[in-house]
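#structure-requests
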Amino acid sequence: MTVATGAGAARRSGAFGWLGVALLIGVFLLSWGVSLILTAPAGLVRVPAGMLPGNMTLTPVSGTIWQGQWRLNLPQGDAWAVTARFRPAALWHGRLDWRIRVQGDGVSASADVSPGWSGVAIDGLTARWAGDAMRLVTAWPMGGRFDGRGAVYLRRMQQGLMPESGSLSLRWTDAQLTTTEPLTLGTLTLSTTLADGGRLSGRVTPEATSNAPLLGQLDLKGNIHDPQHIRVTGWLQPTSAASPALRQQLGLLGTTDAQGRIPVNGFLPGA
């Protein structure tokens, strides 16, 4: 009886020994995996070609995917600095979230970016940039300063990430647009919403100040994925502060009504 008991104890001791070895191996593999994840270099982040506007490219500089630095290369001019910092608190809400900051010549922006299986959510977006930075996305020469706030959800589709829903407010201070010559427009505000897979609804309003060169209201309706068919309706009216060049350009839109307003009914220009 004593011998049997000793044999059983030996077997139990051997089983516990193998269990301890397996546990140590498991802890080692888990630690190794966590270490690989935590130290994953920033270079693992790849942005597909064509996803960024204006032929921009993103190049890793240093750090990890959790806290790193990248360089946003532009077709012309100095590159912009991009930093990303992981926000662990978002895990309580079941999502991954990074705070992204962009800094460049005349450009400053930040947002919370949450990638998912079906798309990317961008929240808390704030941005400020000089008008000449708009050359990256449009051929229209612009002056002044832009300040924007908003949020947008980008749906992952066959052609890439496409805007599906969200809202944006934009203020264009000391607005200037050059056609044959610079046109001073005052300060313009834009408010837009996106819904139902990209259905756009927005309004552009010149600020009615004592020295404003322009009054009016323009409404935008259409689908952001079909910019050639975004309809613009409303009216514009030059004030006594409007330049002769601005009056001439507004005159090309049509004749004034009894209130001195120029009706607008067409599609987004240059789209």
